[in-house]
Amino acid sequence: IWKSRTEKINAELFALTYGALVVQLIQDYEDYAEVNKQLEKMGYNIGTRLIEDFLARSALGRCADFREVGEVVAKVGFKSFLNITPTVTHSQPQPSGSRPPSQANPTGSSFILTLDENPLAEFVELPEEALEGGLWFSNVLCGVLRGALEMVQMQVQAEFLSDVLKGDESTQIQVRLLKYLEEEVPVGDD
Amino acid sequence: EKGDLAGHRDSTTSLVSLKGSKLGLDEEDEPLRLRLEAIGMHVGANICERLCRDRGLFTDTLDMIKFICKDLWATCWDKQVDNLRTNHRGVYVLQDNSFKPIARISSWEGRPESIRRARLYAILPAGIIRGALARLGLNATVTPEITTLPQCTFQVKLPKGA
Questions:
Q1: For residues A178 and B11, what is the distance between their CA atoms, to the nearest angstrom?
Q2: Residue of chain B whose alpha carbon sits nearest to that of A15
Q3: Taking an 8 Å Cβ-Cβ cutoff, which residues of chain B contact chain A?
């Protein structure tokens, strides 16, 4: 979708830089929970800006429902920024029966992104200490998703369910829709 | 606040923030500078190792510097260094006329502010260069300098006898 005009960065440089950043955070905070939090926060700040680039270049319109959001995130978002396409698995909130829900956008809808490859973790092997400490190495991605979707009126909760770096079979991020935000005019922007 | 930045740089008598003024950075940026440099060194050392894996040994120091100017630069910043100068006594000046990390920086607060911001973005690359040289066995200091965007120079100073 990006055609040729995109500036690219060497994938190794990207992966190594992210790794070095995580190492620096671990040294600074000495607490893995806090590192997870900081990575998420950094991602949030990236996401709130990245969405603008995304909208400008992709020229995509509004998604009809949260299901479509999942598809676009995986097939356009991840594809254009990280050149990977995670598999999307959708789920509706507490499906009591097998009937499709009547409401098109129930809050509580969620999708799971399964990452077959992860450019951030290209050279990574986590030490025992980080595993025990509960580090989510790629937590920046959760923040990016939260930040980007918030800018298009969706408050979501994004979190890792599993990570191959931890010895899990797959790397999965769950994105759950909390609510649609009202469009608001920014303060002092009338 | 932004006004006295230029003051720091231009004034030779100011005793305030001597360390920061050398780079044209605020003193409060020092912790940031240290972290960015540390991250850069980490990256530089590792990327250098990957780049060197399939090549022969270096013949001398100049050979290593050339490797930085060509291979490392191309890997990290998509081009080669435009100009390399040396005093033949351990100081090398690497000049890039359009340095990728700062090529797109601008500020609505004007050019001095753009340059101030660009200087922050040159710290990580300086760390990368320093880290790469360190992995080659050279304990250098690397000082980035920006006077006109998007040009950036790095002064590499090697210890005596290297």
A1: 55
A2: B43
A3: 35, 38-40, 42-43, 46-47, 50, 75-76, 124
Which residues in B lie closer than 8 A to residue A28 (C-beta atoms)?
35
> What is the C-alpha to C-alpha distance for residues B57 and B140, in angstroms, rounded to an integer?
19
Pairwise CA distance, residues B146 & B99, whole Å: 10
Look up the ipTM and state it: 0.83
Closest CA to A178 of A107, A124, A110: A107
Could you tell me the maximum CA-CA distance found in chain A, to the nearest angstrom?
A: 54
CA nearest to A25 within chain B: B35
Put the strands of the sheet holding A171-180 in their side by side order.
Answer: A87-91, A110-115, A171-180, A154-162
A16 touches chain B (CB under 8 A): yes
B91-96 and B83-86 as β-strands: parallel, antiparallel, unpaired? antiparallel
Give the strand order in the sheet containing B152-157. B83-86, B91-96, B152-157, B141-145
Answering whether pTM is above 0.95, one says: no
Residues of chain B with C-beta less than 8 angstroms from the C-beta of A13: 43, 47, 75-76
User: In angstroms, rounded to a whole number, what is the distance separating the alpha carbons of residues A78 and B99?
Assistant: 27
pLDDT digits (tens, 9 = 90+) for A120-159: 999 999 999 999 999 999 999 999 999 999 999 999 999 9
